[in-house]
């Protein structure tokens, strides 16, 4: 199994699966499914440096996050789909 460790202020996110059916019970065909905008953080980089000062990451592994529709870069690692993005692409954390 390969491990992936993001550099700088990048994170790796496992997108949540796309909705299979609507709230009214209609099934959504694959061609009409929206790209997921929520996921679970699986790896976090060390942070960034601004003006010589280290800035820690504000998200941690295991956090559920909301991100922009077209954010990040798709990556398949050991048959697992991941999304690699900068921390600034994250819109917020979702708390249960």
Automatic annotation (TrEMBL):
**Record's PROSITE patterns?**
CHAPERONINS_CPN10
Give the family from UniProt: Belongs to the GroES chaperonin family.
The record's listing under InterPro entries reads:
Chaperonin_GroES (IPR020818), Chaperonin_GroES_sf (IPR037124), Chaprnonin_Cpn10_CS (IPR018369), GroES-like_sf (IPR011032)
Per the record, its GO cellular-component terms are: cytoplasm
Which CDD domains did the record assign? Answer: cpn10
Keyword Magnesium in the entry? The reply is: no
Q: Quaternary form?
A: Heptamer of 7 subunits arranged in a ring. Interacts with the chaperonin GroEL.
Which one Pfam family would you cite for this protein? Cpn10
> Which UniProt keywords are present, listed alphabetically?
Chaperone, Cytoplasm
The protein's matches in Gene3D superfamilies, at most eight in alphabetical order, are given as: GroES chaperonin (2.30.33.40)
Q: What is this protein called?
A: Co-chaperonin GroES
Any idea where this protein resides?
A: Cytoplasm
Summarizing the function annotation, the protein's role is:
Together with the chaperonin GroEL, plays an essential role in assisting protein folding. The GroEL-GroES system forms a nano-cage that allows encapsulation of the non-native substrate proteins and provides a physical environment optimized to promote and accelerate protein folding. GroES binds to the apical surface of the GroEL ring, thereby capping the opening of the GroEL channel.
Q: Which domain of life is it from?
A: Bacteria
Extract one GO molecular function annotation from the record: protein-folding chaperone binding
* Keyword check for Chaperone: yes
